[in-house]
Design brief:
Layout: H1 2-5, H2 13-30, H3 32-41, H4 55-62, H5 66-95, H6 103-114, H7 117-124, H8 130-143, H9 153-169, H10 173-195, H11 200-208
Helix pairs in contact: 2-3, 2-4, 4-5, 5-6, 5-8, 8-9
């Protein structure tokens, strides 16, 4: 086992969220009120405690050592992120005209994402940025067939919740959210320039959204 064989002394970002989880277990089981206060106070920091909330039950059962933390991240965030990235990939393939998206294709795409060095290496070293990948994958799935030209309260509510969650997980994801939604406007601008026509209704609906 890679994690069990490592002899690295973890510092800084490698151990930060692991320490958050260990502290969270101690605080949550001692005083829920104090734990909620810690969550609130951490919202002003670049690294918030919000992502550790779902990890606490699993890590408390598996043990507060680094292996227990890694397995908890794997179950709570890593596997769902790979799953929703796979779903997005196959949906995109179908929209592109590829109708051969089978169970084998799903399994193959899932394995590719799960074993990708860009996913696996930060995760095994203790980084928790995979939570951002998970929420981004959910956003991609929620907006795959949406160009901003239609208004839906349900969809906008989902997008708002996901946008808030990703910023709460770590503040610098705010740059991604701003750029992501601006990309819809940029895409519409490119479309109007290419056809030399102004879509007033689309512009209005995009602004409304």
């Amino acid at each position: 086992n890679y994690v069990m064989q490592e002899q690295t002394i973890r510092t800084y970002d490698y151990a930060l969220y692991w320490s958050f989880v260990v502290d969270g277990i101690r605080t949550a089981f001692h005083s829920v009120g104090n734990f909620i206060t810690q969550l609130r106070d951490a919202l002003s920091n670049d690294y918030t405690n919000i992502p550790v909330v779902l990890l606490i039950p699993f890590t408390s059962l598996l043990g507060p050592d680094f292996l227990g933390y890694i397995v908890s991240v794997f179950v709570v965030y890593y596997l769902p992120a790979c799953f929703f990235l796979t779903v997005f990939t196959l949906r995109l393939a179908r929209l592109s005209g590829n109708k051969s998206a089978s169970l084998f294709a799903f399994f193959l795409a899932f394995v590719v994402f799960a074993l990708s060095p860009n996913m696996l290496n930060p995760f095994l070293h203790g980084y928790l940025d995979v939570i951002g990948v998970l929420i981004m994958a959910l956003l991609l799935n929620a907006t795959l067939t949406w160009d901003g030209a239609s208004f839906s309260v349900k969809r906008n509510l989902i997008l708002a919740v996901l946008a808030v969650l990703i910023v709460l997980s770590r503040r610098w994801y705010a740059y991604f959210i701003v750029a992501y939604f601006l990309s819809f406007g940029f895409s519409l601008l490119v479309e109007m320039i290419s056809v030399r026509k102004i879509y007033i209704k689309k512009v209005f609906m995009l602004g409304l959204n």
